[in-house]
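To whoever is on call:

I kicked off a structure prediction for a single chain this morning and the downstream step that reads the tokens threw a length-mismatch warning. I double-checked the sequence; it's 298 residues and nothing unusual in it as far as I can see. Pasting both halves so you can look.
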Amino acid sequence: MPSSLRRFLVTFCGVVSVSAFVLGTLYTYTARTLFNPDVFANRVADGLADPKMATLVASELSDQVIAVRQDLIAYRPLVVGALERVVASVPFRAIVRRAVKQAHHTVLSRQGENLALTMGDLSVVARDALAQYPQLASKVPPEALDAIGATKNWTPGKTLSRVLNMANRMRTRAIILIAVGLIAGVSGFALARRKDRFLLRCGISLAVVALLIGIAAQFGAPGVAAVVKPRFASDLVRGLWPAFVIPLALRMWILGAIGLTLVAGVTSTFRRVDLVASGAAIWRVLAGRPRRVSVGLL
């Protein structure tokens, strides 16, 4: 094989291997986080523990109450404070976790095409929060609380089947990408004349790419929130980012550490061990015909 072609194939295999491992990790995390009912429900419930997210949800519920009863505008801070404590509480997050899990399972089922979701249970949450202020609760008419659940409907239609198909594709592609990464890495290692240099470059590339993605996942919330419009969606990104995206940074740190470990192993091992000579010695032992039949069977 010509040297130029060998170098191209080795470089190509290295790039494909690193890219496939990184993309496979991203696909695996995304598919598990968004399309696993238990994980998704836990992420949403954990997001409500963040004070910013609790304030955002409480403000949205308060605005819906005040939209029905305009004379409660002066009491808005009290309403927000009461709802905020309820939203951030452990019992409420447990209720949300169970409700989100059930809704997620229903949405991603085959029966989701004719599904219509409502937020009627939020009126119960508002009543429990306002119960802490009897003088304020007496001024809120029942129809105002009922309006919370009646004003918002979501009829996703046939797009839910597309979401389900995307989930299945992501899970399949994650497995394929990891397998491609392994095959490409082994192929590049076998073709490379300098095995140590090939592994060194792959380790450095894997560490750099993984660490860059990890930094973006850890500190990218302000930048993404600044681009997202309107304001409510931007605040929602800020609130849910720690629960949904920051755990991805840990996966990237681990992947980057694997790359650094590979670099350290190459620099310390390949200078002491001659892989070609060791492989030839092992092959002589395995390929030679043993004198005893029992050893040959083994």
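Update from on-call: the warning came from a stale cache, not from the record. Cleared it. Sanity check on the structure: Residues 110-121, 149-158 have pLDDT under 50 and may be disordered.
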